[in-house]
Amino acid sequence: MQRHFDDMQLGSIELFVLAGEHGSFTAAAAMAGVTPAAVSRSISRLEERLGVRLFVRTTRQIRLTDGGKVYFEQCRQALSQLVEAEREVTGQQAAPSGRLRISVPTPYAHYRLLARVAAFRQQFPEVQVEVHVSNRNIDFAEEGYDLAVRGRAPQDSTLIARKLEDAALVLVAAPSYLKRRGEPKTLEELAGHDCIQFVLPSTGRLIPWQFMRDGIEIELAGSDAIVCAEDFLGMGALAVHGGGIAQTYRFAVERELASGALVELLPQHAGSSRPFYLIYPHARHLSLRVRSFVEFLLR
């Protein structure tokens, strides 16, 4: 393998990552035991070698450029892997450590993952967990994510998908809505009701409702009296306030069903579910923190 870096270049990358993490040359200098001027010169040499401006500098602060953000995430991940490799071969890494970045959609974050992140941190306190709650698609390489939870397995062969669960769906409405509009007794009657629909961020299309009929799963478009985007949990909140009928994950409305704030509709057509997958890049040697979190979550 051809050599690409000398010791000075690797040192410049380390100082760059410290400055990016702390948003300050002075803070990076204090962490590294050098002067702020030395950090500034080192990063300037790095920018000259790359031909890219990494920071926007003012008299009061520094901030990463768009190119700097991409380079920062890649460098931070690479340096972390080097540190873990050294610890592994020297037998120093008895427990996982470092930063773990996770992207997870809103329903699974609030009703599943966040509680498990708290439990994971109690077991592995040396791991810093950064959870991004969002329904948008991500780019693992460019954005520096270690893991993501998504509702479908990716087609990309560079990613691994492990199923977490099949989440049961339930059709619900508030008693106030049913008193005003009546309760549908058949699937066909849903067309005459106010249906709360969710827009899938990746396609911009409404997610069809899923039901079981005679042992076969079917899909219905329903009306689009109210449409929710971005936050899947908004449908449940709208339903609780009498906005209409919604299909959501049973785990997201268990308390409301138990309290009577929501009523399950058409239970004879229940039984459909949607999967959730834990997704991460395919790598020959997963970092210990990623491997530990995957094993913890699958347990």
Structure characterization notes:
This protein is an alpha/beta fold. The chain has three domains: 84 residues, Orthogonal Bundle (Arc Repressor Mutant, subunit A), CATH 1.10.10; 91 residues, Periplasmic binding protein-like II (D-Maltodextrin-Binding Protein, domain 2); 107 residues, 3-Layer(aba) Sandwich (D-Maltodextrin-Binding Protein, domain 2). The strands form three sheets. Strands 3, 4, 5, 6, 7, 10, 11, 12 and 13 form a nine-stranded mixed sheet that branches. The chain has a two-stranded antiparallel sheet with strand order 1-2. Helix 1 packs across helix 2, helix 1 packs across helix 4 and helix 2 packs across helix 3. The longest helix has 25 residues. It is elongated.
Concise structural overview:
The chain is α/β, with parallel strands linked by helices.
List the helices and strands and how they pair.
Layout: H1 7-22, H2 25-32, H3 36-50, E1 55-57, E2 62-64, H4 66-90, E3 98-104, H5 106-123, E4 127-133, H6 140-143, E5 147-150, E6 159-173, H7 175-181, E7 195-198, E8 209-213, E9 216-220, E10 226-228, H8 234-240, E11 245-249, H9 254-259, E12 263-264, E13 273-281, H10 288-298
Parallel strand pairs: 3-4, 3-5, 7-10, 7-11
Antiparallel strand pairs: 1-2, 5-13, 6-11, 6-12, 6-13, 8-9
Helix pairs in contact: 1-2, 1-3, 1-4, 2-3
Task: Give the biggest beta sheet.
Answer: 9 strands, mixed
Low-confidence stretches: none
**CATH class label of the largest domain:** Alpha Beta
Distance between the termini: 40 Å
CATH architecture label name of the largest domain: 3-Layer(aba) Sandwich
Structural class: alpha/beta
Report the order of strands and helices. Answer: HHHEEHEHEHEEHEEEEHEHEEH
Number of helices: 10
CA radius of gyration is: 25 Å
Q: Bin the strand percentage.
A: 15-25%
CATH fold-type name of the largest domain: D-Maltodextrin-Binding Protein, domain 2
Helical fraction: 25-40%
What is the total number of structural domains?
3
Shape: elongated
Number of strands: 13
**How much is the average pLDDT?**
86
